[in-house]
Amino acid sequence: MRRRRFLALGSLASSALLAGCVSDTTDDATTEPPATTTAATTAEKPDGVYVQSFEEQMAMQGTTTVGDYTVALLFTVPHTFWTLVNRDVSKTEKTAEDDIHLMAVVWDDETDTVVPAAAVSVELERGEFLQQEVLYPMLSQPMGSHYGDNFALDGDGTYDATVSIGAVAGRKTGAFEGRFESVESAEMTVEFTEETRARVGATPIEEAGEPGALAPRDTSYPKSIAPAPDDLPGTVRGTAAIDDAYYVVTDLASAERVGEPEQAYLAVSARTRYNGYELSSMALDATLVRDGETLYDDTLSRTLSPDLGLHLSAAVPSVESGDELTLSVRQPPQVGRHEGYETAFLDTESVTLTL
Known about the structure:
Blueprint: E1 6-7, E2 17-18, E3 24-25, E4 54-66, E5 69-76, E6 81-85, E7 88-92, E8 100-108, E9 113-114, E10 118-126, E11 129-134, E12 136-140, E13 144-151, E14 157-168, E15 171-172, E16 184-192, H1 194-197, E17 201-204, E18 213-214, E19 235-242, E20 245-252, E21 264-272, E22 283-290, E23 293-299, E24 301-305, E25 309-316, E26 324-331, E27 336-337, E28 350-354
Parallel strand pairs: 2-18, 3-4, 12-27, 15-24
Antiparallel strand pairs: 1-2, 4-5, 4-17, 5-8, 6-7, 8-9, 8-13, 10-11, 10-14, 12-13, 14-16, 19-20, 20-21, 21-25, 22-23, 22-26, 24-25, 26-28
């Protein structure tokens, strides 16, 4: 086993981030074969985010742009992963029939903004073999947000891959208004050969199960890292924490971006502890109170914008220092989780901030 050194975190985190040097590999890359070829699992799991039990290598299959979307397609060894329906967590075990864990990352090439909550599917075809799967929106420690699933293939060879990308759910503002609303298909290929299999695998991590996370990997595609609080527009009012999810609150003087210029714009940027990945597909209620008077009490809207990234927002009468803002998780993020995230971001709790 290789031991990873611990890195100090910024003000939003209070524990360990494990540094790794693994990156996605391209067709002409030369890499040493990984130490193992299957992903292990951690027997005892703490509540919240914990260090996954393996570090993986991936084989990049290509990148292309279609419509508003740029997509990268890559694969690694099959994974056990977890999906969520409301608060019910289901475990999907990797099986002996699975050959690869196929992943797609979708983003806006102009801003390097990762596109969340789209409907993404992949059709693989080779000769008489045909398999089509809807990819789960997922979150992993090295990659952040992506779409993925395990696939059983039909031997070595080149597979034609059709990646279909649906419209992005939620409100878009600024330069994103009116974009990511079409359905597009990208024609790509997956090379499943002895050479590409030699690039992928998983190496055990000695710190597995400890509170913390693997650091984001160095990749050729962008990752869904939320803007640092100091980089958010407006007046940043503070940060709340629920079940290893951090909620950074900011407000802008005008909600013109959502058609209400006389109102203020309240925005909450939800991100993971340690790596600061954006958390998508969740329902967050907010109650804003000033001197005993309720100014806002409703569900925040899922919103995507170039400056705030993925966030939850509302137009409110105004925001002032001393106001009390209560955030309540009504539905946790409805995204699949790779190991290390399946025990976090599940609680439906409330927290109150004095702004």
